[in-house]
């Protein structure tokens, strides 16, 4: 029997709204971010979707989102944190490099600027989510709230068809069995 992972991006933040680069730095949820997170919580209730385990990035925007979605206890994990963009943090998104189409990411661009490499982010979030799913028992549902860049790197590893667009408060459903994540669908409620 398989386990299910519901991997959710946090709600819209002030930096999202202002088009600022937001990785290791944080900014609060906007009223829209709060409302959208509540809509996801309502979707889960309407579909009788409950979680045996819940996890969040240690960053406030993710834990605040999780607390709006469900009132169950959860664990904060550093492995679910957003990509660290180094000195680009808090700057305009216009400064982001173009994504390398061959690899589907920024690669090592941020490393000389005290940030993380794409493969470091991918390894970190994959290791974290694999550990989380290995702790769950067969048939259990797991909710994890993370960030756009980190989720993108995770999906690059596990989704071979067209990657889903990862909007604020989107939820990507995966089945997990014996070390393999299999994409099921993307849930959008905005």
Q: In DSSP terms, counting alpha (H) and pi (I) runs of 4 or more, how many helices?
A: 5
CATH topology: Rossmann fold
Strand order of the largest sheet: 3-2-4-1-5-6
Using the CA coordinates, give the radius of gyration. Answer: 16 Å
Number of strands: 6
Oligomeric form of this entry? single chain
Strand content range: 15-25%
The H-level CATH homologous superfamily, spelled out, is Phosphoglycerate mutase-like
What is the mean predicted local confidence, pLDDT? 96
Structural description of this entry:
The chain has helices at about 15-20, 30-45, 60-70, 120-135, 150-160; strands at about 5-10, 55, 75, 140-145, 170-175, 180-185. The protein is of the alpha/beta class and about 190 residues long. The chain has one domain (about 5-20, about 30-80, about 120-185): Rossmann fold (3-Layer(aba) Sandwich). Strands 3-2-4-1-5-6 form a six-stranded mixed beta sheet, sandwiched between helices. Helix 2 crosses helix 3 (about 60-70) and helix 4 (about 120-135) packs across helix 5. The mean pLDDT is about 95. It holds the Pfam family His_Phos_1. One of its GO terms (cellular component) is cytoplasm. It comes from Companilactobacillus paralimentarius DSM 13238 = JCM 10415.
Task: Label this structure with key terms.
190 residues, alpha/beta, Rossmann fold, six-stranded mixed sheet, globular, His_Pase_superF_clade-1, phosphatase activity
């Amino acid at each position: 029997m398989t386990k299910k992972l519901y991997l959710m991006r946090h709600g819209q933040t002030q930096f999202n709204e202002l088009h600022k680069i937001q990785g290791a730095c944080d900014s609060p949820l906007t009223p829209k971010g709060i409302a959208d997170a509540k809509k996801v919580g309502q979707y889960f209730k309407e579909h009788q979707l409950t979680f045996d385990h819940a996890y969040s990035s240690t960053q406030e925007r993710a834990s605040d989102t999780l607390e709006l979605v469900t009132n169950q206890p959860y664990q904060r994990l550093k492995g679910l944190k957003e990509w660290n963009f180094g000195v680009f943090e808090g700057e305009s998104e216009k400064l982001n490099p173009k994504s390398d189409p061959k690899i589907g990411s920024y690669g090592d661009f941020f490393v000389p600027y005290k940030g993380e490499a794409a493969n470091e982010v991918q390894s970190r979030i994959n290791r974290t989510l694999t550990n989380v799913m290995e702790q769950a028992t067969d048939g259990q549902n797991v909710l994890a709230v993370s960030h756009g860049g980190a989720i993108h790197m995770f999906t690059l590893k596990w989704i071979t068809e067209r990657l889903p667009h990862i909007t604020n408060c989107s939820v990507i459903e995966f089945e997990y069995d014996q070390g393999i994540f299999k994409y099921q669908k993307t849930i959008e409620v905005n």
